[in-house]
Amino acid sequence: MNKLYPQNWVKNYSDMLLRFALLRTNNIEQAKDLVQETFLAGLRNVETFKGDISEKNWLFLILKNKIIDHYRKKASSLIVEIDVLLEKSTDYFDEAGHWKESAFPKEWGVNYDDTVEKEEFYEILNKCMQKLSELIRIVFTMKYLDEKESEEICKELAISSSNYWVIIHRAKLQMRKCLEKNWISI
Amino acid sequence: MIFKNTMITCESATQFISQKEEHRLSVSRRIKLFIHLAICKFCRLFEMQNRFLIHHIKHASTTASLSEFEKEALQNKINSELKK
């Protein structure tokens, strides 16, 4: 049977919760607020803790719910971005739908089936994610960091499935380009 | 005529790649994508690099942490709530 020890929460969990929140919000102050809200919500709900999951997993569940609430609020105000996204595919493709010469994918000279161990690669990956505009970053994060189904993402953010595909397409084009530019050139 | 109907643009091909990854691509589209990838090296690269990207994104991490001062303040807040 698991128990809660709120007097040790900060020492034991604050950094891992903060990192989890930061990767998903891209804003350190926001991430700090989410960690604090998580602890305070935990305190208010101690009686709901049945001890069937670990203290750590229970706190992460609270944080994940807080992040979803945060995403929902953001998404409803960002949905106007969609029209801009639709126009912008001209960055990559010409009128005939072919790759523009400036956007031709280049050979990276890596084995695409290998896993990269280098820390700097992950820093660049992070930076590229941060450069995505907010709505794109949220959808991309939900899909690939949290591995949610697209239906769930559409439902949670109240976006249509066609918007989802536009956003995911845009995210991949931009991430691929950003990695190529910043990592391969090292 | 067959030729015209089977050809898709790179823009469509890259969209199909995303849909294929989520198993949302119809058989006819899968065939069109297969043919496109056979003749277009840029979209082949896009597909491989996209897979590579998705594989690695799960391991994204940060090293951020709260300062000792922030930790103390936060724990004090929790302690005072506990006393209530």
Write the topology of this structure.
The complex is a heterodimer of chains A (about 190) and B (about 80).
Chain A: H1 9-25, H2 28-44, H3 55-78, H4 81-87, H5 119-131, H6 134-144, H7 150-157, H8 161-182
Chain B: H1 2-6, H2 10-21, H3 27-39, H4 41-57, H5 68-83
Structural features, described:
The complex is a heterodimer of chains A (186) and B (84). Chain A has helices spanning 9-25, 28-44, 55-78, 81-87, 119-131, 134-144, 150-157, 161-182. Chain A is mainly α and 186 residues long. Chain A has two domains: 6-75, Orthogonal Bundle (Rna Polymerase Sigma Factor, Chain: A), CATH 1.10.1740; 81-182, Arc Repressor Mutant, subunit A. Chain A starts with 8 loop residues before the first helix and ends with a helix. The relative contact order of chain A is 0.11. The model of chain A has no long low-confidence stretch (mean pLDDT 91). Chain B is mostly helical and 84 residues long. Chain B has one domain. In chain B, 75% of the residues lie in helices and 0% in strands. Chain B has helices spanning 2-6, 10-21, 27-39, 41-57, 68-83. Classes of the chains: A mainly alpha (186), B mainly alpha (84). Chains A and B meet through helix 1, helix 2, helix 5 and helix 8 of A and helix 2, helix 4 and helix 5 of B.
N→C terminal distance of chain A: 51 Å
Radius of gyration of chain A: 19 Å
Count of separate structural domains of chain B: 1
Biggest sheet character of chain B: none
- Oligomer status: heterodimer
What's the structural domain tally of chain A? 2
Q: What is the CATH top level name of the largest domain in chain A?
A: Mainly Alpha
Rounded to an integer in angstroms, the radius of gyration calculated over CA atoms of chain B is 25 Å
Q: Tell me the β content of chain B.
A: under 5%
Based on secondary structure, the structural category of chain A is mainly alpha
**Amount of helix of chain B:** over 70%
Order of helices and strands of chain A: HHHHHHHH
